[in-house]
Design goal:
The chain is an alpha/beta fold. It is built from 24 helices and ten strands. It has helices at residues 11-20, 37-44, 63-73, 89-97, 110-150, 156-165, 183-186, 190-212, 235-240, 245-260, 278-291, 303-307, 318-330, 333-349, 354-375, 381-399, 402-420, 427-438, 445-451, 456-467, 471-489, 494-500, 506-517, 521-531; strands at residues 2-7, 28-34, 51-55, 79-84, 102-105, 172-179, 216-218, 229-234, 264-268, 300-302.
């Protein structure tokens, strides 16, 4: 409901206005009545309204003076409508200069009032859409700067921007919240898990409130198999609620679990003294997450507890890794499962640090790249490293998941087998057709690989080699280009265009559009039309 303030010194006029139409039906609520401009200003100091309808002639303070005072003091950004018994052009000019929405002559006709309310509602809706786009744009840009700090690849521009927009003075931690991979959750589809991730994010931002909602990040590293949420936490958040850090985090997690209906799990990184060390806290959550490979009753894991176990920093599980590599080479899926379990159990037993985990993973990747090169001399080794090496390390360490490691190893086994069979990349022609004809649908690399009987890792490798970008980026870029055509050649609203090109979430569409075009869809449309 839009909130209305009526300002008039004649009671029968106010009563007549209130009874003239069905305000609730039009989406409005009369929240207050003032006898003059002074009373109206007093009310506006403590209350928000969306529309002010004021008589032009009143004792103490007239409607025009009230309008001037509101615009000068910026006490309210409500739409303003003047009521007058005088058809005076000078009055109208003064009202227009004060950005008055409309100037109505008494007596007011019901349809005339309804038309004005419809006009106000439409402008309010457009204003709210624009505000939402601006907020989404700002939030997206802030998140990108935060991620540069998380991965440790930032400069002073990134650091200064985060400092200006987030107030993190001391006692800072990075916190990761993920879906607990229980037996029930493991059977869910990717879209179902994505929906849970979205609800976790929404519940986190609700709990954090307006002051801290931007401290929550959706899709930290944008991993295909990751469904986690990140929070930049500082102890001030708990102190404001009169809670300890532990009490605050327990309450937050309880709110999330109550909302999503399936257990979430929280990993709390080590405390840092300055936001420039955020990557250290982020990596510490990876360590904790790597050891939580089986479902337990525990729901919050602290890095400090892991650190107290005197983590080893020198161990290399060479024997197990070599056995795993043999199983990958043979494409023995059951053998891969068994050896990955052995590897994780040993790493957990040895309480490995992040540095040691990296050492073991790098050894595995080095061996796999060498095997791939031996299988097919024409394979670009640097390209293989970009695909298998870097992306795999990101996934394994950042997801910290035993199941992810198994899936990665299985896909590598199939990929190596296909290299031995000298698989053709002609399937890309069909994939490109699929995108151009079905871009509005839920296309995935996994789904297309099943349709054309190609391993998804290998298909992704071929796709990058031909087009220079990953499958997801190509699909998103194609959707955005179709959206541009709709922006230029139709009058469709932004949310309608998002749906037409395959986005179910307006926020995600706006975010992707900003990443590709550098501005919001509304601004881009305006720029296109201005050039014509």
């Amino acid at each position: 409901m839009l909130r209305v303030l009526l300002v008039d010194d004649e009671p029968f006029i106010v009563q007549g206005l209130a009874a003239l139409i069905n305000w609730e039906k039009e989406g409005y609520e009369i929240v207050a009545i003032a006898n003059n401009g002074v009373e109206a200003l007093k009310y506006l100091k403590d209350h928000r309204v969306d529309l002010i309808i004021a008589d032009i002639n009143m004792p103490v303070m007239s409607g025009l003076t009230l309008l001037d005072e509101i615009r000068r003091s910026k006490i309210s950004n409500a739409y303003f409508v003047i009521l007058s018994g005088y058809n005076d052009f000078e009055y109208m000019q003064q009202a227009i200069r004060g950005e008055c929405m409309d100037y109505i002559l008494k007596p007011i006709q019901p349809q005339e009032l309804v038309n004005i309310l419809t006009k106000v509602a439409n402008q309010h809706r457009v204003s709210q859409d624009n505000k939402r786009e601006r907020q989404q744009s700002d939030r997206s840009y802030l998140s990108r700067n935060i991620i540069t700090l998380l991965i440790g690849k930032y400069d002073e521009v990134n650091l200064d921007y985060v400092r200006q927009h987030l107030h993190l003075d001391k006692d800072i931690r990075y916190i990761n919240i993920d879906i607990n991979e229980s037996e029930m959750v493991s059977t869910l589809s990717d879209s179902a898990k994505r929906a849970i991730q979205r609800r976790i994010y929404e519940k986190c931002t609700d709990y954090l409130g307006e002051k801290y909602c931007n401290y929550c990040i959706f899709d930290i590293i944008n991993q295909d198999r990751g469904y986690d949420i990140g929070i930049l936490y500082c102890s001030e958040m708990a102190r404001e609620k009169g809670l300890s850090d532990e009490e605050y985090l327990e309450e937050l997690l309880a709110c999330i679990n109550k909302e999503i209906g399936t257990p979430a799990i929280m990993f709390v990184g080590n405390m840092i003294s300055d936001i420039s060390y955020l990557a250290d806290s982020y990596r510490s959550t990876v360590v904790v997450k790597a050891f939580q490979s089986l479902p337990t009753e525990q729901s919050i894991y602290y890095y400090t507890e892991q650190k107290e176990k005197n983590i080893s920093t020198t161990a290399l599980c060479k024997d197990i890794l070599d056995e795993l590599i043999k199983e990958i080479y043979k494409n023995d899926q059951s053998g891969i499962q068994e050896k990955v379990d052995c590897l994780y159990d040993q790493m957990k037993q040895m309480n490995m640090s992040i540095e040691t985990i990296e050492l073991n993973i790098n050894y595995l990747l080095y061996k796999l790249v060498n095997i791939a090169t031996e299988q097919e001399p024409n394979v670009d080794q640097e390209e293989i490293m970009r695909k298998i090496g870097l992306s795999a390390f990101d996934g394994i360490t950042r997801c910290g998941s035993r199941e992810y490691f198994k899936q990665f190893a299985e896909e590598c086994a199939i990929y190596l087998m296909q290299l031995r069979n000298d698989s053709s990349g002609g399937v890309l022609i069909e994939v490109e057709k699929e995108i151009h004809h079905h871009y509005k649908e839920n296309l995935t690399l996994k789904g297309l690989s099943k349709k054309y009987y190609v391993n998804s890792a290998y298909l992704g490798q071929l796709f990058i080699k031909k087009y220079g970008v990953p499958f997801k980026d190509y699909l998103n870029n194609y959707r955005i280009e179709q959206a541009v055509q709709l922006l230029l050649h139709t009058d469709c609203l932004v949310y309608e265009i998002a749906e037409k090109v395959g986005y179910k979430s307006l926020d995600y569409f706006i975010n992707r559009f900003i990443m590709v075009k550098g501005c919001t869809p509304t601004k881009y449309r305006k720029q296109l039309l201005d050039k014509e």
